[in-house]
Design goal:
Three copies of one chain form a homotrimer. Chain A has about 425 residues and is an all-alpha fold. The first copy, chain A, has one domain (about 1-405): Ammonium transporter fold. Chain A is about 70% helix and about 0% strand. Chain A contains 13 helices and two strands, in the order αααααββαααααααα. In chain A, strand 1 and strand 2 form a beta hairpin. In chain A, helix 4 runs antiparallel to helix 5 (about 180-195). The model of chain A has no long low-confidence stretch (mean pLDDT about 95). Chains in contact: A-B, A-C, B-C.
């Protein structure tokens, strides 16, 4: 009898844990709407259909490729084949055990797959914003398919699938993916922006012309949805409904986001003379990306400090990239790459794992990712550029990608400022 | 002691199950915002207030009528009175047992009611999009009240309330409502569109003039929220937090949505020459509607196939309805009616219940629904048309329903393209 | 062994309860996006960046000040120092017990903090809408910081922290904050509006000129998100996942919102001649605010009545405030203050606690809040007005606060109606 009771109690815990992981999955899903809104809001209305198209199809492509190969590349498990690359098969399927605590006390096989698939697609979405307003749709779709289907899961495996970053003496630590998700997306974005070059009219005669986004409400909707989604992104990365740990993670996540907003407000007010809404919005995201690597290791004070630093970094990083003529319409590099790196290193500086050895391991993780994703994506972009071309024609860019790529307008009823 | 422990364990499971069902209820609720955004985005800005008005008041009317009569019509239970129609009383109330596992291990009486009430309102919302831009507000409100209060619950009872479709030798199967919700809404939409006729300017001298929607971001927001809501619509239809089954349903739902998007992208690129964002958005919805009848019966491959077929069907269906001059501004007929029928039949073709007898039963369900909802709504539309009128004046239609029905504008600050 | 089993069962219940409270926290968080969208939609496009800025930074400031002092002011607990004011320390932290059922069977210390912090920020957001389109950003930020950091938690303590309203013979009852949150915000808004005066052009030569909001879709998105968030606001106020109580609360909440919408539709159709979308949207909110004080005490009929009354009140209240030249651009006073008072009194009129003594206690709560928040916020507004000024210059107001305060436009791509 006691055995039966114990089993029922375990099953109940399994059901609770799995419930949280499914909800976290839904929250990460909504980040795709967050990215779509944010990127559309921060770019011009003549490219809005194109942005929405990319951000609608990427989750679809991401989920399909993750089904075909990504999940097995990232979590090779028994079929594990080495420190850098492993593949346990193709497709997804499970036996009855995959639906019980035998598989994992935190979730079923199906929940595991879907949560990770939603994560995977976010990495490709990060690229989308940085390369916006001039990339050819077909080229972007090809890149994204390879990026989300192969590059992202390979790097993910290094840590979360038991690869070399996980088996170092002092293992690299990346709780929910400051590096594994955000910097990976960020490096893909950086190489893309370099291969593409800046938008027409952005840097003329060594002057930086701001190109304002067309809808601040859309941008704000995007950032709020991303913060909401981050409750699932970070909170779900606990991989169970553990009350203490998940609630701590939600607190550290919210404190970092809040501090990021405040720091970006102050920095923009002091250095740009006016309190800038796009900086505050990116400050929130900066805090979120910054806390992601160590969201389970920090206390309130460390979380606020990480948020304040991230929110300050992002303002100066946006200015810096503009200075060196790296044209990133939405600030994705500053948010995801720069704050992703900072957040990863912060695990060695603040919180429960702070220490020199940990800092070194974090640095190794950052550098390995930079080298691999930087080279691999450069190669892909290079091949695409040489074969099918990477950029729309100057005429199409000037007229807008909505007409050029889609023969549609996002807002046909309204008069545009010429 | 053991009995007490067993009871506590059961109560915990009840609490978990009920928690999931409440969250699913909230997710289905947010589908109303999804429909509001999608329909507003795919129509012209001069009719936006009217769309928003309808989609704001329908959930309210739906919840109230479901309280008064709908819940008892759809789930007559003890008061059950026959295979086609039954009514167990008026209003909602429960004794203490309704709040315990005695009522149902999956949910309380209140949760049961609210989850089903949120479902009911979606059926009326489906009609709203198809009849947009020319229907009189008062006529629409009267129709919707009858539709959500009586027609929808009657058909729902046939299957979910234990009626004749459920008691056939091979019972009709409709997991979350490809027929019971989506086709029911679709038939009400089709008869409405026929009684109304096309919008002015849509079909002139045998030419089809596209009337583009006024905001693609709104449309995209709508579809993402609908996908999110579908996690509750399908996932909640498990009627408990069963880890294996709910997580499977979320996976099949997401795979079908993704495959629908990809198929619609490819179809529109090949046949319309350009990758069309509205087709991709409707492709997502098509996949969702298609999987809904059998979301718990399919594996990954079947789900992808159902999504691919639905996403292809929707593109050609939109073209077809335009060819035969059935003017549906948002594609609701193609998504909810056509893919609802396909999804229902797919239960007999793919997955755990595939087989000739099942296919026949599915066909019986499809046809019964068509006959009853088609006739009943035709009668209602006919009476409305003859008595109070169904359509606004040509002047009002040309000027826009926002000014005519509401004396307001949706965007008073912006210059419109004349 | 039995002890261990009992402990595991308790831990499971704790995990379920805490899970619901975390989800409720996320739902309350999304109310901030709801307020941002609603307020932006109901005001002019030249002030949209300013609205979004305020509503983005307030949750951040709210969470930070609640961390520093608010949580300890509102829930002094052991450090409790009196009936009107108490403070148990600064900052947030917990020992291991704070993560177990020892702290509370419903949630961990961290969840407790974050749920309450999300509540706190909503109070300041209520002010934001009423004072929109003419308040100086820096003055508003200073006010909000004091309001959310000190005023709100002080009043909250009177009831929820065990203060004098909770220890009366017939304790004041306010389930989720019709008074403690909504009226508190409402009084701060009323004094702010009085100190500010009406917007330029609103009341000219004793005539009321309507100033329509610039985006009805944004307003509708806002209200739907607020309704969604209210599932967490009211449902989370049960402070556990208790199946019967939480599901009842979701039902009463939805019925009141629905009835509020219907009543506002009918009232506006009858008295304003046209069915007004902004009235329906505010009717939903009115119903939600009205049910909030007694959402756990009402049955379906009482909930519908409360919703109908609230939805009627809000229409006439909006007209009334305009008559007496209290200029509230978004109707926040009518929704949060007036319906907050009605909802609080309704606890003495309808439902399980109805009775004369309870009505008196409710009145005492309403009056104490009015007196304290009215005076305290008047003092703050007065000092701000005399020192740094409270209102932007007439030139800036006419040109719009987006250019004046932020040197940005919300929609730079679109032609504005001059």
């Amino acid at each position: 009898m006691d055995n039966e009771l114990t089993q029922s109690i375990t099953n109940n815990l399994f059901t609770i844990n799995n419930l949280w992981m499914m909800i976290a999955t839904a929250l990460v899903f909504i980040m795709h709407l967050g990215f779509a809104s944010l990127e559309a809001g921060l770019t011009r209305s003549k490219n809005t259909v194109n942005i929405l198209f990319k951000n609608s199809i990427i989750p679809a492509i991401g989920i399909i490729t993750y089904t075909l190969i990504g999940f097995n590349l990232m979590y090779p498990g028994e079929g594990y084949a080495g420190a850098f690359f492993g593949l346990s098969g193709l497709g997804i399927s499970t036996d009855a055990a995959g639906l019980t605590p035998e598989y994992n006390l935190g979730y079923t096989y199906w929940t595991d797959f879907l949560f990770q698939a939603m994560f995977a697609a976010t990495a490709a979405t990060i690229v989308s914003g940085a390369v916006a307003e001039r990339i050819k749709l077909s080229s972007f779709l090809l890149f994204s398919t390879l990026f989300v289907g192969i590059i992202y899961p390979m790097v993910g495996m290094w840590k979360w699938g038991g690869g070399f970053l996980d088996s170092m003496d002092t293992p690299f630590y990346d709780f929910a993916g400051s590096t594994i998700v955000h910097s990976v997306g960020g490096w893909g974005a950086l190489t893309g922006v370099i291969f593409l070059g800046p938008r027409i009219g952005k840097y003329v005669r060594n002057k930086i012309s701001p190109i304002p986004g067309h809808s601040m409400p859309l941008a704000a909707i995007g950032v709020f949805l991303l913060w909401l989604g981050w409750f699932g992104f970070n909170g779900g990365s606990v991989l169970s409904a553990d009350p203490g740990l998940v609630s701590l993670v939600l607190v550290t996540t919210s404190l970092a986001a809040s501090a990021g907003a405040v720091a970006a407000m102050i920095s923009s007010w002091l250095f740009l003379k006016k309190p800038d809404i796009t900086m505050v919005l990116n400050g929130i995201l900066a805090g979120l990306v910054g806390i992601t690597a160590g969201a389970d290791l920090m206390g309130p004070v460390s979380s606020v400090l990480i948020g304040l630093i991230s929110g300050t970094i992002v303002v100066f990083s946006v200015i810096f990239f503009d200075k060196i003529k790296i044209d990133d319409p939405v600030g994705a590099l500053s948010v995801h790459l720069v704050c992703g790196i900072f957040g990863t290193l912060a695990v060695g500086i603040f919180g429960d794992k702070a220490g020199f050895n940990q800092f070194l391991s974090q640095l190794i993780g950052v550098i390995s990712t930079a080298v691999f994703v930087g080279s691999a994506t450069s190669l892909i972009w290079f091949i695409i550029k040489k074969s099918m071309g990477i950029r729309v024609s100057p005429e199409e860019e000037t007229e807008g990608l909505d007409l050029g790529e889609h023969a549609m307008e996002a807002y046909p009823d309204f008069e545009k400022v010429s």
